[in-house]
Amino acid sequence: MAAAALLGILVAGTVGYLLLGFGLLDATYQTVTTVTTVGFREVRPLTAAGKVFTILLILAGVGTALYTLSVVLEAIVEGHLSRHLEDRRMTREVARLRDHVVICGWGRVGRACAEHLAGAGERLVVVDRDPARLAGIDQASVTGDISDDEVLRRAGVQHARALVAALDSDADNVYVTLSARALNPGLVIIARARSEESTAKLVRAGADRVVNPQLIGGRRMAAFAIQPDVAEFLDVVMHEETLELRIDQAGVTAGSYLAGRRLAETGLPAGVLLLAVRGPDGAGFVPNPAPDTVLAPGSVLIAVGPPAGLAGLRSLAGSA
Fold first, then answer.
1. Residue 93 lies in a domain
2. For residue range 88-140, what is the model confidence (pLDDT) as tens digits?
3. Is residue 79 over pLDDT 60?
4. Domain count, the chain
5. pTM for this one?
6. How far apart (Å, rounded) are the C-alpha atoms in residues 115 and 258?
7. CB 3.0–4.6 Å: which of 19, 108, 151, 164 could bond 144 by disulfide?
8. Strand blocks (E) in the chain
């Protein structure tokens, strides 16, 4: 804004001197020397109207020039300019993203979630109000108050596939969930809850899933206490990148090879074991489905197998 104001003053001064009979170069030279208070000499004698115009130009231009210079120096000395340019670059980068995941809150939960998603190849945008937290992170980021809908828009929520609300306060997570659902009705929202009482509120606000890290952590600790091998196997299958077996899901889309077929007719890829099927109504899972189970469009298949086999299953289901 300061630079635009200074440019406006220079243009107005040049036009004014042109109207007073100066040539273009002389008018520009006279304007610059007047506004910057250099004042070597007057290019040509001034009439009374020229003197009045010069006085007005000095009053308007000198202050504008000094203010613009101070703003530029402050931006360079304090690093504001580089941060502004980085913010502009990040804004353009985020604006081009589609089907990405937005993580709100860069605390321990948000970092752990981002690490797993990045390892799975997902594109991420992290939002946090503290710029110091976001300094030096590898993911695209947006700094701002998450209670402002404009911050969510800058994170590309309208075009995102999922949002993780991992803020420290349950109230903040409820607010983010409400705002994100209004901006993108089809968004998958996973919200963090610190207390069990907040779970129902987050669901009513529009969260698809609510996770209580303390509750899950306690259950995992109990599982390691009484079923250590089972718990470790599930951890390895879900999170260990070097293992040849993985657990994954595949949604059956209309018109795909699997849609409407019985399980016995599908011929699943080699090495893939179907653990459970969830119907299109989103009800409970059917574990170890029978061979005559019909895979209706909208069903979700939960399977274990090598990565290549699971990719083949997703291709058959039309969700690759």
1. no
2. 777 788 888 899 999 999 999 999 999 989 887 899 999 999 888 888 788 88
3. no
4. 3
5. 0.64
6. 33
7. 151
8. 101-104, 124-128, 140-143, 162-165, 188-192, 209-211, 246-251, 273-278, 285-287, 300-305
- The rounded radius of gyration (Å) of the Cα atoms in the chain is 31
Closest C-alpha to 219, from 234, 197, 237: 234
Question: What span, in angstroms and rounded, lies between the C-alpha atoms of 311 and 249?
Answer: 10
Greater confidence (317 vs 2) lies with 317
CA separation for the pair 92, 39 (Å, rounded):
43
Cβ–Cβ < 8 Å for 164, 100? no
Task: Residue 148: give its domain's CATH number.
Answer: 3.40.50.720
- Joined together, the tokens standing for residue 314 give 């997703």
For residue 168, CA distances in Å to 113, 125, 163 come to 14, 18, 15
Is the four-CA dihedral 211, 208, 146, 161 of positive or negative sign? positive
Residue carrying structure tokens 């929202």: 189
199 shares a domain with 105: yes
Distance CA 181, CA 178 (A): 5
What's the pLDDT score for residue 82?
63
| Measured CA distances, 32 to 2, 70, 197 (Å) | 16, 18, 67
Backbone angles phi, psi at 22, to 5 degrees: -75, 155
**What domain range is 114 assigned to?**
98-211
94 contacts 153 by C-beta, under 8 angstroms: no
Q: Which amino acid is at 211?
A: V
| pLDDT of 242 above 70 | no
CA gap 112, 119 in Å, rounded: 11
How far is Cα 232 from Cα 240, in angstroms, rounded to an integer? 10
Whether the Cβ atoms of residue 303 and residue 274 lie closer than 8 Å to each other: yes
